[in-house]
Amino acid sequence: MVNTQQVEQSAGAGSSEEIERFDAIVIGAGVTGLYALYRLRQLGLTAKSFEEGSGVGGTWFWNRYPGCRFDSESYTYGYSFSDELLQEWD
What letters, b where the CB count within 10 A reaches 16 and e where it falls short, cover 9-36? Predict the structure, then answer.
């Protein structure tokens, strides 16, 4: 397991750049990753998301089908935690 000190040493080796610090990081910006980032920030934590793709969406970023919608009653695909996002989704 890598500890914070090891990461700081390797990230800052020979560099005068300031190291960014976060309370949490989220790997992936799919449906779950975006919600995790939202909740962490809502709790007052500093958090950052890292995504391999050039945009958010997870599976839906890599598999795009113009005009396709997800046929599910699942609240997780509707972002019901945010009225603003829910309105945009509909």
Answer: eeeeeeeeeeeeeeeeebebbbbebbeb
Global confidence as pTM? 0.63
Do 20 and 26 meet the contact criterion of CB atoms below 8 Å apart?
A: no
Closest by CA position to 41, among listed 84, 81, 86: 81
Residue 85 reports pLDDT greater than 60: yes
Tell me, yes or no, whether 67 lies in a domain: no
* Domain of 51, in residue numbers: 20-59+74-90
Q: Which residue has the higher pLDDT, 43 or 73?
A: 43
Report if residue 39 sits inside a domain. Answer: yes
Q: Are 76 and 35 in contact (CB under 8 A)?
A: yes
Residues 35 and 79: beta-carbon distance below 8 Å: yes
Q: What is the pLDDT of residue 82?
A: 76
